[in-house]
Each structure stands twice: as C-alpha cells, then as structure tokens.
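FORM 12-B: Structure-to-Sequence Request
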C-alpha cells in the first residue's frame, strides 16, 4: 500500500510517533512518504492509497484542544475540498490532564467526514507519548496493523 503520513509537532513527540509508524509500515512491506503538513497541499495528500494525519492538541487563540497551527492553516486552505471516498486515518498526541483530551483528533475527523473521506480505522489518541515511548509505540504498532488490514 502507498501510504502518506502528514504531521506537525511542537515538541517532537508527534514526529517521533510518526517515524515509528513509518518504520513499522515499511517493515510490513508498505511504501511510506512522511512530510510535515505545511509541505503539502490538499491535492498532494490525494496521491496515496491511505493518508494519515497526525497532530498534537494545543491551545490556539485561547482555546484548548486545537490542532497544531500548521493544521489549522491546512484546514482553512482545504475547506471545500473533497476526499471523495478515499481512505484516511488520524493519529493524535495529547495529555489527559487537559479538558479537551486530543481535541485535534475530533476536529480532523470532522474535516475528513465533511470531505467525504473514509476512516480506515478508529483514530488513535495517545496520552503522554514522550513519558513512555516504549508502551506508546506498542499502541502505534497495533494501530498500524488495523490501518492496513
Ligand atoms: C501549551 C500546551 C497546551 C496543550 N493543550 C492540550 C490540549 O488541549 N489537549 C490535549 O490533549 N493535550 C494538550 N497538550 C499536550 C500535548 O498535546 C502533548 O504534550 C503532545 O504530546 C505534544 O506533542 P508534540 O510533542 O508533537 O508537540 C498541551 C500541551 C501544551 C504544552
């Protein structure tokens, strides 16, 4: 399967999780392209069998549970565009001590559904990724299997 991983990060966790996901999918025989979301247009993301969007949740303009600023720009630029039945998936890093745990995931899912995209599997929300990478990479590994099955 030809997989695109599009991510953004503030403190490096989402990048590390995506690198692990990329390695896992590559080892399983898939072709993976990993880029930051500000490197691609909406149209670029259509060139894959599966596209994965990965964002931390953060404060944006005083509101908690928002995607990374670069995703906010991407969503604003892609408002009326359509996935038209194409497979998508969402990975979110967050911290459950915040009121809107992994709120970015809900926003990205709503964007995919509004664009007639199809979720390949349930989104993965990871709590405190950098505090236990071994355990959390285990979750990423399990998720990778569901994504491509
Ligand atoms: C200022 C700030 C705001 C945050 N807001 C949220 C939030 O609203 N919801 C959430 O689940 N996590 C929140 N987090 C936790 C981050 O999403 C989490 O640490 C994540 O792993 C960061 O990913 P990154 O390393 O890719 O930037 C916040 C963290 C910081 C420092």
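FORM 12-B RESPONSE
SEQUENCE OUT:
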């Amino acid at each position: 399967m030809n997989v695109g991983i599009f991510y953004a990060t503030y403190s490096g966790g989402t990048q590390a999780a995506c690198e692990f996901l990329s390695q896992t999918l590559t080892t399983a025989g898939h072709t993976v392209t990993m880029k930051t979301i500000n490197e691609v247009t909406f149209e670029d993301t259509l060139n894959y069998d599966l596209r994965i969007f990965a964002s931390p949740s953060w404060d944006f303009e005083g509101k908690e549970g928002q995607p990374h600023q670069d995703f906010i720009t991407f969503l604003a630029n892609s408002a009326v565009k359509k996935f038209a039945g194409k497979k998508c998936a969402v990975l979110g890093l967050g911290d459950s001590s915040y009121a809107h745990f992994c709120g970015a995931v809900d926003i990205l899912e709503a964007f995919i559904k509004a664009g007639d995209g199809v979720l390949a599997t349930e989104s993965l929300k990871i709590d405190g990724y950098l505090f236990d990478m071994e355990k959390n990479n285990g979750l990423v590994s399990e998720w990778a299997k569901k994504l491509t099955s």
